[in-house]
Design goal:
4 helices, signal
């Protein structure tokens, strides 16, 4: 009976670890982003925020060959493949939140949209994301001077 107790406690510990909330800060230093601005003649302020996960080369890590990845995948059993797919979904949710967080911090840091913004188009996939939006406020003369060049 004690053997089963140890297994049960071990299972509880593992499940507690896997159900820990995902934090967007997990991507800190692991992605690149770009913020582009466009002010139209009528004072409409548009922006595009693009983010992507830094490649292994960008981070100085050796990337395994695609062929080797395929060989390793064939060696996986169905259960481990299902677990991997579940983790990929969690990573996609985490990445989506990271894109939103990166955009909000960029907007706050630049002061581009003083009264908030609306999202015109949002596309997030594994490892990359893009948000196009329009500010709720119109461009001032100061905005035109400051943001006529893209970041």
């Amino acid at each position: 009976m004690p053997k089963y107790s140890v297994l049960f406690v071990g299972f509880l510990l593992l499940s507690a670890c896997s159900s820990a909330p995902i934090e967007p800060e997990a991507f800190a230093g692991q992605f690149k982003d770009r913020f582009s601005t466009s002010i139209k003649g009528e004072g409409i302020k548009l922006f595009t925020y693009q983010a992507k996960v830094a490649t292994a080369t960008d981070r100085g890590i050796e990337d395994p060959l695609p062929h080797q990845q395929r060989v390793n995948r064939r060696r996986q059993d169905a259960r481990s493949y299902a677990i991997e797919q579940e983790r990929r979904q969690e990573q996609l949710e985490l990445w989506s939140r990271q894109v939103d967080l990166g955009l909000q911090k960029t907007i706050d840091m630049t002061g581009y949209c003083k009264d908030g913004y609306i999202v015109l188009n949002r596309s997030v996939s594994e490892g990359r994301g893009e948000v196009r939006g329009e500010c709720n406020d119109g461009a001032t003369e100061e905005d035109i001077k400051k943001f006529s060049r893209n970041f």
